[in-house]
Amino acid sequence: QLHQRGFRCLHGVDGSAGMLERARSTGLYRRLRPCVLGREPLPAPAEHYDAVTVVGALGEGQVPSVAMPELLRVTKPGGFLCLTTRSNPSNLRYKVELEAVLERLERQGAWQKVLAQEVERWERATSEEENTQGTGYISGVIYVYRKCPVPASRRA
């Protein structure tokens, strides 16, 4: 979808060599690098990207919520961060923890919330336990933040 909308300079990271190879096979990415978010820094300089997205990786046992400052580090001031997580029962503890981190960064003036939108039919449920509303889907949330400019007093 991003490529179809004119975004052509896409870089990607993943902790799995198999997922990197799968991404490489699409021909959509200019650069793909191994990185385990939350355990190591992103392979990019500070304030490098206009936009950073994390889709399908913010969940229990995946990218820890403590990785948010690292995502901010590589985003240009005024740039956007688009994050998603699931709202299914097995991810609710993580979602609460993630939202606490998101809110703390907003209170600290690191970014401003542009959007937090629940999506009822986020993805297909993989078990009856997750299929809580009988739709065959689980819900999720899309968060969009805009990185705030760094005050001159904090640049030194």
From TrEMBL:
Residue ranges of the Methyltransferase type domain?
4-82
What's the protein here called?
A: MET27 protein
The gene coding this protein: Mettl27
**What InterPro entries is this protein classified in?**
Methyltransf_11, SAM-dependent_MTases_sf
Q: Which GO terms describe its molecular function?
A: S-adenosylmethionine-dependent methyltransferase activity
Q: Which Pfam families match?
A: Methyltransf_11
